[in-house]
Amino acid sequence: MADDRLVGVEALTRVQVRPYRSPDAWFRDAYEVGLGPDLEIETLATALGGLDLFPTHMFLALNVSPDILLDQRFSPFLEGVDPKRLVLELTEHTAVDDYRPLMTALRPLRDRAPDWRSTTWGPDTPTCSTS
């Protein structure tokens, strides 16, 4: 940036429990016992709860799984959030065979901000695609 102004931040999950385990381990274990979407929704709620702490010109980047994009709680969860302040990064930990349902799930965000773009990048996407 020409003026060295901070334009965005990324929310990362950290669990302060000993012994230390990586966030990936917590999410993996949560998914194994059927609590993965609940853990993701809670971490997203915590991150979005801090969005108002930053100036309105700044964006918040969030890592989301394909499961969360398709979860019935996802779209209503973001209704009060300005899409222009969000960057959604599709986690690379889950392979995606068909991106069409994910793009459909993102339609409410695009409808509210037609110039909003989602970007996917991961081991199963040979190129970066925006829509």
Automatic annotation (TrEMBL):
Q: InterPro entries given for it?
A: EAL_dom, EAL_sf
* UniProt-listed SUPFAM superfamilies: EAL domain-like
Residue span, EAL domain: 1-131
Give the protein's recorded name: EAL domain-containing protein (Putative c-di-GMP-specific phosphodiesterase class I)
